[in-house]
Amino acid sequence: MHDRSWTHLDDLESEAIHILREAAACFERPVLMYSIGKDSTVLLHLALKAFWPAKPPFPLLHIDTKWKFREMISFRDETARKFGLDLRVHTNPEGLRQGISPITHGSRVHTDVMKTQALRQALEAGRYDAAIGGARRDEERSRAKERIFSFRDRSHRWDPKQQRPELWNIPNTRVHEGESMRVFPLSNWTELDVWLYVLQHRLPVVPLYLAQPRPVVERDGLLIMRDDDRLALRPGEHVQERMVRFRTLGCYPLSGAVESRADTIEKVVEEMLRARTSERQGRLIDHDQSGSMEEKKREGYF
Amino acid sequence: MSSMLNEGETLGAFLDRYRSLELLRFLTCGSVDDGKSTLIGRLLYDTDRVYDDHRKALEEDSKIHGTQGGNVDLALLVDGLKAEREQGITIDVAWRYFATLHRSFIIADCPGHEQYTRNMATGASHCQLAITLIDARHGMTRQTRRHAFIAALLGLPQMVAAVNKMDLVGWDEARFRSVEREFLAWCARLGTPEPTVIPISALHGDCIVHPSTHAPWYRGPTILQLLESVPVMRPAADAPLRLPVQQVLRPSPDFRGFAGRIESGSVTVGDRVQVLPSGRETRIARIACAEADGGDRKSVAAPGSVLVTFTDEVDCSRGDVITCVGGSQQPIPCHSIEADLVWMDETPLMAGASFLMRIGTRTVPATVVRIRHVVDVDTLAQHARDSIEWNEVGRVDIVTQQTIVVEPYRQMRALGALILIDRVTHATAAAGMVRSGDPHEPNPRRAHWATQPAPTIEPPADRSATESVARAARWRQRPAAILLFGPPKSGKTRRAFALERHLWQQGHAALVLDGQALRGGLSRDLTFSDEDRSENLRRAAEVTRLLLDQGMVVILSMVAPQTAARELARDLIGADRFLAIDCAQRGTDDAALFRDVESFIRPDQTPGAG
Ligand SMILES: Nc1nc2c(ncn2[C@@H]2O[C@H](COP(=O)(O)OP(=O)(O)O)[C@@H](O)[C@H]2O)c(=O)[nH]1
User: Fold this and answer.
1) Once rounded to an integer, what is the mean pLDDT over residues A209-222?
2) Domains recognised in chain B with CATH numbers
3) CA of B139 to the centre of ligand 1 (A)
4) Which residues of A touch B299 (CB under 8 A)?
């Protein structure tokens, strides 16, 4: 009777589209946080689908730390051009002036200035009342308690004790002037779901997710790709060509590559299914200290 | 962590298998320290779903925060927030995801603290099965009863009790049986389907994933066996269609699509449907989908998100519900409902309080007009009370300012579940479940019109009842109401004040009641909906009545577009004292208007003329 059988992914897709439409209908100035990675890719695809044949009724916002992989930036611009989207890019001008870098200032300072503060600046400048993001609850422990519609006060803070109960699929989207909501349509997706969706819909992703010979250095137990010569070599370090890919993408000096032969999405999925470590393992930001992500979230990190 | 792939399984074979994997959403609840976190940790650990780096972090954490003397503390796997960790308690719903070779699971890990009952209701609203933890040493507690009560209230079809820490009671069967009896009896009183009761030791892993060697007397399933075998509930495709409209998409003048998620039933191109509350009928023209996504669909079932178009130009907007036509089960458009509330705000609910109510995709102003009772969770007794306190459950009557479309929650969750939002703080004050909607009182305001005029208050003895007669005689007028009505810009207000000036110059006592001015105060709570316009006119008419009793001539300047409402105003004031003038129809000759009014208010004028 129906076009095809209903799958677990259809369930998640329908839920995400419902959330995107609620966000569009209930807020005056929503914005989609586009971070170029696989989650953003799925999120954008769902947004295009949710409002087709209209364009998504919100702009895309990318917080550019100026330390993203070059391939990410070209993928971002190509995507915005292909779909004719309103892409807005923001970089913290003070951070830029101070020359904040993850290499010299460390991941904490860099993340705080170039991501958290930059995001606040951009949200305030745009007077956005809803910021839609691709975060998933299974990513990290403190995210497990995050709501789908997550309230932020006037200073963009998240208070885990003051969350609104979220019942059925009836979000409470009311905010006062200056307050805002973070909206996470992919809350219930797992990393595997995201990849299976990419595979099923043949979505183009940044090539960095696929294995390829790349110049990397071993540093602090991670394989860091030398995307440009701002990554100065320390004594004893040398650049080697290795067959690697990335499970998550961020600022290149903070993203650890994994050695892999998976040069197609199929092979990536297969590797995932056999994976024994979490995707965040390759991220320096989580290793600073136990509970670090939670602190960043309270400060307004996405 | 082990592979998700079976021995030798190819990706293609996996994908086929994965497509048939079902997703089960369940919750875990219990009092603090009953072992909920340990149970979930154990489930993940014993199914080998813990990533190696998480396992390593867990081992390190166990040394610092653990309660197991440096041994792995499984509870830490799922304790997320710092404050909780420091206090050693879980304070909020946490969501966990895991999959076995047979099924995917979403776990809503719900709090044990009594004051966080709201989170239990939150978790339950997303799940079909609840596992309630009971400490074998203590048996059922108030919290256990409360959690089972809320699970029943939210209509969870499957209930499980896990009697934990059986190791601490020496795996005593008699102890288990007595807890089991108590739980079964409680659930029977709640009217839930028969629950499954399982003896476990979360700490040692008995009866979670692996059967226990300590309980040869127990023949039932382990927790995981049960989770992998209960039927997954999904909306039936042959149920009646309910499609609450989220948005109207109008990308071009020739396309008008209605976006929403099918909450029940299915839509097929050509289906006859109606839009509620208006009741207008049409047919589904398209289920539109981009070429890149496989193009238009012929038919989609719940819970699919769709974009449909109609064959006719039918009004439909956010908050409306598209439903099938006919069928025995129909939603009720109404203004008044009876509902059960789980009260979630620290400020107690009092009758008369106003909120924003969200039901389906519609948000309307609503007032709790009556508290019927509050339920004592220990005895299930219903107590008449005038407030509902934080974390209590009670039954109320709610009246809404605009039409809503409801169905009993037990029949149709999509149109039976609601939330109340505090108008000032915007907090979610309550979760509600509709029991019934009252279609017989379509407009509570018109009910005001219908009531008899208020009984006349006896004037005090020293006040002459003939005073108003004397006044009218002095002013040489018969008290009367002149309603100047018509759309904005039809010249009502200008005429009203010109008339007032003219009557004043002639020595009469007249004043203007301006509809717009009323809205600044007396009718500040009203909108411009039909029913609120009607109500505004009713209030003006009531004020007019009081003034007429004082011998005045009252000039009403109001839009008053509804004939029915004008007739009600006429009845309230009295037809012999009421003159309605349609400003849109009337010529610009003020002198003629003045003559008509003067003749109407002349003391010797016979009633009804003019
Ligand atoms: N002996 C014993 N202790 C247990 C068992 N399950 C949990 N515990 C202990 O009970 C305490 C509370 O457990 P926890 O999972 O944190 O409880 P929660 O508050 O319900 O999440 C911890 O010290 C656990 O180690 C069990 O089956 N047997």
Assistant:
1) 93
2) 2-229 (3.40.50.300), 242-324 (2.40.30.10), 332-438 (2.40.30.10), 471-600 (3.40.50.300)
3) 15
4) 1-3
Task: Looking at the complex, report in whole angstroms how far the Cα of residue B544 sits from the nearest Cα belonging to chain A.
Answer: 39
Q: One-letter amino acid identity for A216?
A: V
Asked if the C-beta of A21 comes within 8 angstroms of chain B's C-beta atoms, the answer is yes
The residue length of chain B stands at 610
Question: What is the number of the ligand 1 atom nearest to the C-alpha of B68?
Answer: 25
From residue A83, alpha-carbon distances to A47, A60, A275, B150 in Å are 11, 12, 34, 47
Find the range with the poorest average confidence among A50-64, A240-254, B311-325, B522-536: B522-536
Query: Does the beta carbon of B75 lie inside 6 Å of ligand 1?
Result: yes
Mean pLDDT computed over B262-287:
95
β-pairing, A130-132 vs A149-152, is: unpaired
Beta carbons within 8 Å of B394's beta carbon, 6+ residues apart: B340, B341, B343, B349, B371, B372, B373, B374, B375, B385, B388
Give yes or no for a contact between B162 and B130, defined as CB atoms under 8 angstroms apart.
no
In the three-class reduction of DSSP (H, G, I as helix; E, B as strand; rest coil), residue B601 is classed as helix
Residue A144: closest CA among B267, B133, B80: B80
How would residue B444 be classed by pLDDT, with cut points 50, 70 and 90? very low
Strands (DSSP E) contained in B288-427 are 299-301, 305-310, 321-324, 332-343, 349-350, 354-359, 362-375, 382-383, 387-388, 393-406, 417-422
The angle subtended at Cα B158 by Cα B152 and Cα B162, nearest 5°, is 95
Q: State in words which class domain A8-193+291-299 has.
A: alpha beta
Q: Is the CB of B164 under 6 A from ligand 1?
A: yes
pTM above 0.90, yes or no: no
Q: How far apart are CA A105 and CA A103, in angstroms?
A: 6
Q: B361 contacts in A (CB within 8 Å)? A: 22, 25
The count of C-alpha atoms lying within 13 angstroms of the C-alpha of A144, restricted to the half-sphere facing its C-beta, is 25
Whether pLDDT at A3 is above 50? no
Q: In this predicted structure, which of B8-17, B65-74, B382-391 has the lowest mean pLDDT?
A: B65-74
